[in-house]
Amino acid sequence: MKRHLLEGLYTGNGALDIIGKRKRGYIIFSVLFLACIASIVFRGFNLGIDFEGGTRVQFPATSAAGPIDTQRAEDIFTEALGKEPASVQTVGAGDTATIQIRSEALTPDQVSKLKGALFEQLKPVAPNGTSSEALISDSAVSGSWGGEISSKALWALLVFLALVSVFLALYFEKWMAVAALVGLFHDLIVTAGVYSMVGFEVTPATVIGLLTILGFSLYDTVVVFDKVKENTRGLLGLTRRTYGEAANLAVNQTLMRSINTSLIALLPVTGLLVIGVGLLGVGTLADLALVQATGMLAGVVSSIFLCTPVLVDLKMMDPKYKLQAQRVAQRRANIERRHSAAAADDVDLSDDDAIDAEVRKERAMVVAGGVPARNPKAVDQRRKPGGKPQGKKRK
Amino acid sequence: MAPPAGQIRPGRYLAFFVAIVAILYALVFFTGDRKLTPKLGIDLQGGTRVALTARTESGEPPSRESLDISRQIIETRVNGLGVSGAEVVLDGNNIVITVPGENGERAKELGQTAQLRFRPVLNAVPAAPQPTAPPTTTAPGGTTTAPATTTPEPPAADGATTTPSPQGRPLPLAQQPTTTTAPPTSTSGTPTGVEVCENYAKLLADEDADDAEVITAAKACRQAPNLAPSPDGAAADPVLQQAALATLDCGTGVADPLVGNDDPKLPLAACDQDGVEKFILGPSFLEGTQISDANANLDPQGIGYVVVLSFEPEGSDIWSKYTASHVGERAAFVLDTEVVSAPTIEGAINGDTTITGGDGGFSQSEAGKLANVLKYGSLPLSFESSEAETVSATLGLASLQAGLIAGGIGLALVFVYCLFYYRLLGLLTILSLVLSAVIVYAVLILLGRWIGFTLDLAGIAGFIIAIGITADSFVIFFERLKDEVRDGRTFRSSVPRAWVRARRTILSADAVSFLAAAVLYLLAVGQVRGFAFTLGMSTVLDLIVVFLVTHPLVALASRSKFLSDPRLSGLGGAQRSAALQRSARVGATPAVKEV
Predict the structure, then answer these.
(1) B529 contacts B521 by C-beta, under 8 angstroms
(2) Cβ separation of A268 and B102 shorter than 8 Å?
(3) Which pLDDT score is estimated for B586?
(4) A54 phi and psi, to 5 degrees?
(5) Which of A171, A224, A284, A371 has the highest number of chain B CBs within 10 A, making it the mutation to test binding with B?
(6) pLDDT at A281
(7) How confident is the model at residue B156 (pLDDT cuts 50, 70, 90)?
(8) Could you say which of 1.20.1640.10, 3.40.190.10, 2.40.50.140, 1.10.10.10 is the CATH number of the domain covering A16-47+144-315?
(9) What are phi and psi of B250, to 5 degrees?
(10) How does pLDDT run across A4-52, given as a tens digit for each residue?
(11) What is the pLDDT of residues B384-410, one digit of tens each?
(12) DSSP 3-state of A378
């Protein structure tokens, strides 16, 4: 069974019924979505220094006399400036471990005074053995800076959404654009929600990372929809399968690609995350990697389990597709009847002729649609009397 | 473009790619500075980076023009620091100063709007190189001006120097300096003071002199207390005055070490902005912060423009008292140790002060410039330091290494996965990724030279994340290939068909990805741009590699008997599946299969 599932995944022959079970998916997504919104509204975010404004001073955590104690650094800070730092911690590991002091915003004078005092009393030593005041890094951010980055980012988000809607509507069609945007919206909210729930620190780098998820999320959706589009070409003239079934097949066919892509994209990000946290402690790398990892997971899940089902539901609002679905059901009922009849009696020739005609028509449509028929032998097989029931696997 | 479903000539594509690589590397090796490393950002190489955000009172975005002017002014200030490799660039409404290396700390204060102070003029002499200097000294503008009027010296050189021709130069002015210079009778000349100035001149001439040393020497000489009469009645020292004036070089482009370091409580020897006059100024009696507003208006009584100055209540009080007791003397508006304007006080001034521009008045632009200087200091906009960081070279190096290691690990993981999953095709993926990296590196170096693109930590992260997107183009192609093989085609006949269909998907997916990067790049600020840039760039380069390398290589492999062996190509599973389905059809029709 497991083997079967893997084989199905690998060859993508429609083993997973994702579209059929979409109601269940919607419920799960709604719950997740609401939880995220609730967390964002009620819990808010853990905003970093860049949003509140402040100063960060960082220097190697080792001195000639061995590791430097954070308490000592804190004392020196208090002594030099007459106030308490917001936090003092050791980040990173091994040679590159550093002590990081965070405090409210300091003036350049205060910073240089602090750096002087820290160097005088701690004498930090770089991994290469040098020791000078230039080893002490500092970074000061005004409270409005993070806000500015974020507001610019939001503008970029809006413009991007507008442009990408036009692109998708032109390249695919209206409903596909809508469904892709639903997925995108989901990815953004869920990523933001996870940040809010877990309490990860939000920095401008996080906001940047969040924006680039947009590209990735849509990228994945575009690939799935491309297949859907291909599978449903000329669908209305056929009674072979409904839009939902065609879409399900497309999802299955691109499933392995989605999984591969996500894995391949996640692998470097994981590397980034491990290195970012492990070697450098916290910082741009870790922030970016974390938000990307979260967003990529959300993106893949949504393009498989959310976008396509939403697309199918949107499509089925169109009477043309509803009618076609009815015709498919009718045809299947006919076949069913024919088989039960065939089991009892001889082959209903007139019906068989009708099916032949149908098959010819179908092939003509497919050829006209540019997708050549791949298994012409199927036609012969259907002529065989006493063939086993077909098309039963799906309903 | 490959002819649809036909055979392509892989050799041509590969040759084209080799040509591109050759051209890129020829450019790298034989043009520009020929350095083989991309330009690194401050966070990777160590140094100081300051982002200054323009703030306007109305909250509206500042004009491009004023931003440009500010950028230039800040650039001259940065150059005044005497550090090499410093850069000042505009980024949206921000001015970003980057100073590599260890001496950039002072760059953090450059964004401050310069200090404007009011000092009495004790002595004024023409600057040496200009024999025709006197004309710029004040011409008392409209004699008709209201009592509340100061007559200024025109601040801008060009227009002003021509208008107030010698006739406009009135006696009181010329006398004023002379009267102050006159009491040279006191012979309390301290030779030490003169020596101090000689020492300062020596240090100025010495290019290797330490900044701090020069500043101390400049203070000792040009701000010596006995340049001005002391409050207890001791007269000024004229010898010292002469010595101090002699050290001044009023030529343009000469950085004044005292900028931002002058003590308002001490006298000051200074040049005027146009380099035509040298002044000995008394201690400051009023700070520029007391100016509440300054505007350029049309002169109601004459021609041209005037500058109308309003003070805060406290300043207004000081100003009216001072002007009442110093009628006929000159008062200097000193900005960053440069005299912007030194009008003669014509009477006690209460309320708004009007500065007229001599005969013909100011031109609109002159008046506008003076008004802005008085209002904002020398920068046309006020700036707030939104981000200021100093990264030690060690931390920078650590970040760079961490970024590279992360990238290396990421690539290695992708390699292993591709090999495991796609076998031979995985090998092609690796080759394509490596070639992709080869072009990316060249392009990085070239962009660093051409448009000053710097690679920062966020940019490295952009590349690492782009590995995924690049690899994905291959995945799309290979999955399509598998589709075709699964349908019973041979590897060889599948390649062209799979390519035609994958190409569409790759193009549209990359288009979306590129769109995201482009929008981010155009609209965002700061680090976001570096990130967006590298992401967008890798997307474009990904297309080049997948079109010119991956597809031709796969096509080549498919033609080789040995290489298309299912055990090598990793397509065995799909072939088995196809075979399985065929055999299944003998007894049963397939469940669901595409037509």
Answers:
(1) yes
(2) no
(3) 52
(4) 165, 180
(5) A284
(6) 64
(7) very low
(8) 1.20.1640.10
(9) -90, 10
(10) 555 555 555 556 777 777 888 888 889 999 999 999 898 888 777 677 7
(11) 777 788 888 878 888 888 888 888 888
(12) helix
Q: Which of A153, A269, A280 sits opposite B465 (nearest CB)?
A: A269
The list of chain A residues with pLDDT below 50 reads 1-3, 346-349, 371-373, 376, 378-382, 384, 386-387, 391-395
Backbone φ and ψ for B150, nearest 5 degrees, come out as: -105, 145
Q: Do B413 and A270 touch (CB under 8 A)?
A: yes
Tell me which CATH homologous superfamily contains domain B10-40+392-587.
Multidrug efflux transporter AcrB transmembrane domain (1.20.1640.10)
Q: Do B592 and A394 touch (CB under 8 A)?
A: yes
- Using a CB-CB cut-off of 8 Å, the residues of chain A touching B523 are 152, 155-156, 159
> Where in chain B are all domains bearing CATH 3.30.70.3400?
47-111+383-388
Q: CA distances (Å), B541 to each of B17, B301, B438, in order?
A: 11, 67, 10
Query: Is residue B399 within 8 angstroms of chain A, CB to CB?
Result: yes
CA distance B121 to B330: 5
d(CA B2, CA B477): 14
- Which CATH topology does A54-141 take? Alpha-Beta Plaits (3.30.70)
Domain boundaries, chain A: 16-47+144-315, 54-141, 319-383
Q: From chain A, pick out residues whose CB is under 8 angstroms from the CB of B455.
A: none
Touching A: B residues 47-66, CB under 8 Å: 51, 53
How do residues A185-204 score in pLDDT, each as one tens digit? 888 888 889 888 888 778 77
Measured N-to-C along each axis, helices B424-450 and B457-486 cross at an angle, to the nearest 10 degrees, of 150
Global pTM reads: 0.64
